[in-house]
Design goal:
- 19% of the residues lie in helices and 19% in strands.
- The protein is an alpha+beta fold.
- Helix 3 crosses helix 4 and helix 4 runs antiparallel to helix 5.
- The protein is globular, with a radius of gyration of 17 Å.
């Protein structure tokens, strides 16, 4: 799915995570009293919703955006998004890619539904169920059974549903907006399906059930689009999708809000305040 950042309303908006937390632990206990949802993927290169200081709660810091060359814009939180049109120059920084802590735990960043309020910087533990939400007998989703991921919300999207975590994964599809072709100099035709990215295109070429062929196909796209251009952080995030997330197509998850690991907060939004326990609605 796709997600788009939005400039703050005149009254301000809110949400945001931080804390110290599940951080440093290599494994996490199973969730109890969890909500049910699913994970999708996108990378549109837009400045995310949480990049405007008015969209994060008082005492928390907004997410720094980057310029076209991936240089941080630091505290310039008013910089216009590259997806706003008319010369916007702020992009999602390449450092927002997901990464593996070990073979059972990973960290990353996500968009959530635009109906969510006070969301910026909140963190959620996702426990993969081993099934796909809507992709049938998906071998990648089956291979995820028992794995856990913690994501920090940094964006919202008008096409993101309640309980959906649209994880920032290079090559995951640009969705509603595409600033990536401009930032990277890559034709849209090389970015895979608008929704679904490299995996969607590979499923059209290789079929839906040959897991090894799908992983090999997506990995080749990671190399052709990112590694060949020296976009090393993006290449690593794309390869994480192959190696750790097993090219899972919209895997179902049990989820619950948790305190943010310092590793996520330090790179993302530094949110003050405790974690809640409400499902996303």
């Amino acid at each position: 799915m796709g997600a788009a950042g939005s400039a703050p309303p005149t009254s301000g908006a809110g949400g945001a995570g931080g804390g110290s937390a599940a951080g440093g632990r290599s494994t996490l206990p199973p969730l109890e009293g969890a909500c049910m949802g699913y994970a999708t993927r996108y990378w549109d290169c837009c400045k995310p919703h949480c990049g405007w200081s008015a969209n994060v709660p008082g005492g928390s810091s907004a997410l720094a955006a980057c310029d076209q060359s991936n240089n941080s814009l630091g505290g310039d939180y008013d910089a216009r998004s590259s997806c706003d049109g008319g010369g916007g120059t702020a992009y999602l920084c390449h450092g927002m890619v997901p990464w593996a802590v070990n073979d059972q735990l990973a960290y990353g960043y996500s968009a959530v539904a635009s109906s969510a309020t006070d969301i910026c910087g909140k963190c959620y533990q996702l426990q993969f169920t081993g099934t796909s939400f809507n992709a049938g007998e998906d071998p990648g989703s089956a291979a995820l059974s028992g794995k856990t991921m913690i994501v920090q919300a940094i964006n919202i999207g008008g096409d993101v549903a309640n309980g959906q975590f649209d994880i920032s994964i290079p090559g995951g599809g640009v969705g509603m907006f595409n600033a990536c072709s401009k930032q990277w100099g890559v034709p849209a035709s090389e970015l895979g399906g608008t929704y679904g990215g490299f995996l969607q295109q590979c499923k059209q070429e290789k079929g839906r059930t040959d897991h090894a062929a799908l992983k090999s196909c997506v990995m080749q796209s990671c190399m052709n689009v990112f590694e060949a251009r020296g976009l090393n952080e993006l290449a690593a995030g794309c390869q994480w999708f192959v190696d750790w997330l097993q090219v899972a197509d919209n895997p179902a998850v049990a989820y619950k809000e948790v305190a943010c690991p310092s590793e996520l907060a330090n790179k993302g939004v530094k949110r003050t305040g405790p974690a809640g326990n409400a499902c996303l609605r």
